[in-house]
Amino acid sequence: MKNNSEGLQKKFGERLKDIRQSKNLSLRVMAANCDLDDSQISKIENGKKNIQLSTIFELAKGLGIEPKELLDFKI
User: Fold this and answer.
1) Are 67 and 17 within 8 A, CB to CB?
2) Are 23 and 63 in contact (CB under 8 A)?
3) Contacts 24+ apart (CB under 8 A), 28-36
4) Which member of 12, 26, 50, 62 lies 3.0 to 4.6 Å from 34 by CB, making a disulfide possible if both were Cys?
5) How large is the average pLDDT for residues 22-29?
6) What distance in Å separates the CA atoms of residue 28 and residue 5, rounded to the nearest whole number?
């Protein structure tokens, strides 16, 4: 189960990074938009941090997208 969880974290992080970069946002700007720390976002993007549902909503708000867009990736 842990491997599957880690794989999902990695896929989510890749999706987050792709969207952030497509919007030309730096980690710092996005962090300010989300009211999160840029090192925390970096850990999420690198699949090193498991997050809560509320964090997905904060990230989506910071990107100006719907939360479901962050979950639009193949498993």
Assistant:
1) no
2) yes
3) 30/62, 30/63, 31/62, 33/61, 33/62, 33/63, 34/58, 34/59, 34/61, 34/62, 35/62, 36/62
4) 62
5) 96
6) 27
Percentage, residues of the chain above pLDDT 70: 96
Average confidence score pLDDT of the chain: 93
What CATH number corresponds to the domain at position 11?
1.10.260.40
- Residue 75 in domain: no
Kindly tell me if the per-residue pLDDT of 75 is higher than 90: no
The pLDDT assigned to 64 comes to 95
Q: Is residue 7 part of a domain?
A: yes
Asked if 68 contacts 39 with a C-beta cutoff of 8 angstroms, the reply is no
Q: Domains in the chain: how many in total?
A: 1
- Cβ atoms of residues 36 and 2 within 8 Å: no
